[in-house]
Amino acid sequence: MVDKHLTHDETCPIGLAIEAICDADRDWFEAHPAATEYRRLVALAEVIEQRTAGVWPDVQGWVVVSQIVPGLRMRTFDGAVVVLLEATI
């Protein structure tokens, strides 16, 4: 944790898996430009990340991924919300 934000080392398998999940979410919205949200199953890496962060002890079922604007998406898990901002490099 850095400033109350969960961080991953560059080689962390969970961080790399989360990055791949976010890339896939972004790709989905790029392929469906009129869409504002879609549903997918919760990925194991998301469960591990949320448990590690202490957000909640168990995550199951579906994720609703909403695109606020390109580059800003929100994942909603069983009523808990995680907002994702893409880093600019």
Please outline the helices and strands.
Blueprint: H1 13-31, E1 37-41, H2 44-53, E2 62-69, E3 72-77, E4 80-85
Antiparallel strand pairs: 1-2, 2-3, 3-4
Helix pairs in contact: 1-2
Description:
The protein has 89 residues and is α+β, with helices and mostly antiparallel strands. It is 33% helix and 28% strand. It has 2 helices and 4 strands; from the N terminus they run H-E-H-E-E-E. Strands 1-2-3-4 form a 4-stranded antiparallel sheet, with helices on one face. The model has no long low-confidence stretch (mean pLDDT 80).
Brief characterization of the structure:
The chain is α+β, with helices and mostly antiparallel strands and 89 residues long. 33% of the residues lie in helices and 28% in strands. Strand 3 (72-77) and strand 4 (80-85) form a beta hairpin.
Mean pLDDT: 80
Instruction: State the domain count.
Output: 1
Number of helices: 2
Report how far the terminal alpha carbons are from each other. 21 Å
Uncertain ranges: none
Helical/strand content category: alpha+beta
How much strand content do the residues show? 25-35%
| Strand arrangement, major sheet | 1-2-3-4
Strands, total number:
4
Shape: globular
Helix content: 25-40%
Largest sheet composition: 4 strands, antiparallel
